[in-house]
Amino acid sequence: MQGSPVLKSKLKGGISIFSVVGQLAAEYKAINLWQGAPSFTPNSHLVESAFQAIRDGFNQYSPMPGVLALRQVLADKTARLYGAQYDPNTEITVTAGGLEAAYAAITALVHAGDEVIYFEPAFECYEPTVRLQGATPVPIKIPLDTLKIDWDEVAAAITPRTRMIVINSPHNPTGAVLDQHDIERLTSLTRGTDIVILSDEVYEHMVYDGKAHCSMAQYPELAARSVVIFSLGKTFHVTGWRVGYCVAPAEIMKEIRMVHQYLVYSAPAPFQIALAAVLEDPANYVGLSDFYQKKRDLLIDSMKESSLKVRPCASGFFLLADFTAVSNSTDRDFVLELLRRKRVGTIPLSHFYSDDAPTGKIRLSFCQHDDVLREGGRLLSSPDL
Ligand SMILES: Cc1ncc(COP(=O)(O)O)c(C=O)c1O
Questions:
Q1: Fewer CB atoms < 10 Å away: N or C end of the chain?
Q2: Is residue 110 within 8 Å of residue 101, measured between CB atoms?
Q3: Does 315 contact ligand 1 (Cβ within 6 A)?
Q4: Is the distance from the beta carbon of residue 202 to the nearest atom of ligand 1 less than 6 Å?
């Protein structure tokens, strides 16, 4: 059997670096600084509500766009945080994670011959999903020293075939966040075009050092052409429940729902009901930035003697560390060496680029318990790194 050449090329022989690291990490009982899955116990009210929903018999398909009570509470949340009114009936869809929302949106809106601009390093799903539609991904590199998008380069990359621009802020893996200048340039570059913006905002509640998250939903001109993606898995430490959502104007959402209904039909029903219960109280998620900022600072502090050069991030779960002072290896080999020699799992930054060229950098995740972060930091500070 032939399989999909698109996915094969992305997976470099069929196996993702996440699977390779995951397997070796289990073998070596390694410290987990590689995974973007929070290792914390979820809110007890949330867990109890999920059990209760199962006991109450909510074990069949939910309505295709999601449990209405959840969509209503999400509409309130979006209005309160971003001043945007989305109609729960026609403009909000609950999905099987942010990932499904991205897949459904790209599949619904991008077609053969279209071009999609996105920024590298990039979360891994955008490029293969665009290719699977027979469309052309157009990656633009974010300079790692400034983390600022070069909007003149974006302007030059826009053609009559540009159908979508994918924005990811807060950004995985750099932690960069968009600012007002970015919003202004994006607004003027897309004005008068048919370009749709796919705005992946799954780390919306993890922004540090007093910075505010700029959501595409809060700028009416951009919101009118945007699909905005959020993840309840990331926000409530329940990534395995597979619940996220997207918001978009009704005519765009209609297209997305056509794909969503054949992809999964609906997200898990009891978890939607439980999440609706905890979302009613914003206190259940507004403290996340403080929580994760402390984690970020702890990992940085634990690595202050390390020869790895860590760059503090402004948001999200991840830090980038430059290892060129200690090794000439490719980032992929360095990750494998760290696993074997230090029993610490990390991810090579090259994984987030379509050209896969070595970067001299690795990604460290800090969505872990403090003792894991301290031990990971200690191991990464060994003099014989
Ligand atoms: C940037 C980005 N978007 C989307 C997702 C997927 O989110 P979910 O777990 O809700 O599917 C992730 C997960 O790591 C991510 O980092």
A1: N
A2: no
A3: no
A4: yes
